Amino acid sequence: MSPSHSPELDIHKHFELFMQRSLRGIMGSMKQDGLSMPQIYTLMYLYHEGEARISEIGVLMDVGKAAASQLVDRLVHQDLVERVEDESDRRAKIIRLLPKSLALIEKGLVVQRQQMGEILAHLSREHLVIVQNAFMYLMDAMHKLSPSDGVETRQ
What we know:
Helix content is 66%, strand content 12%. It is mainly alpha-helical.
């Protein structure tokens, strides 16, 4: 299989398709539970980061603090997140996941892992190692660009 374009262009094209298919499971599962894409994105961010301030969520979603606060309010009313006082700045609030949202995320991740398992089952051991190494290179490069960007993953 020879690349038809530059390696960068092929990587972009294939990665976009891969991400679309791999996210279909978790996003579809969470959408069935009545969550919007901004809510899902916020919950996944909190899942990987552990907690965030409203201002961080605003930056993540590319919206102002008021819109981010409204988004969080909707999640609070659904018992998916909680607002707690930031001990370092009592005026600020920290947003954390609640058990209900963790259960929704885990349910979606099960679907995603099943789909990924079906894909990986079609690869030889040798190819699995190649893919593993390629992802390690990508993660290393991503970490060099933004070491605090939440690229650590839960196991």
